[in-house]
Amino acid sequence: MFGHSWDVKMEVTGPGSADVGYSFSGDNSPRMTLAGKLPWNKAQNVGFGFNNLAVTSAQPGTVCRIYVDGKLKDEQKKPDAKGTLSCSVHLKD
């Protein structure tokens, strides 16, 4: 990997389960975890680019977060009426 790299951690907490779609910088296509029991998390060392986390079928009280090098960079606490919420972080040199 050329240039700067970051440790990115994505997490979803809350009651029950949810569908989680996510992609780290450099991923060619999003990945999915369907009806995964919460809490859920994934971590990866990445280069520059977009890191996205999308949650659907979430119950009230579900929260998504993205940390970069251990620091909270995005947090969404309120799913909309359809039970969706998302977080994203763009990393650049």
UniProtKB/TrEMBL annotation:
Q: What is this protein called?
A: MmpS family transport accessory protein
The reply on keyword Cell membrane is: yes
Compartment(s) where it occurs, according to its Swiss-Prot or TrEMBL record: Cell membrane
Q: What is its main location?
A: membrane
The family note in this entry says: Belongs to the MmpS family.
Q: Which UniProt keywords apply?
A: Cell membrane, Membrane, Transmembrane, Transmembrane helix
Tell me which InterPro entries the record gives: MmpS (IPR008693), MmpS_C (IPR038468)
Pfam families recorded for this chain? Answer: Mycobact_memb
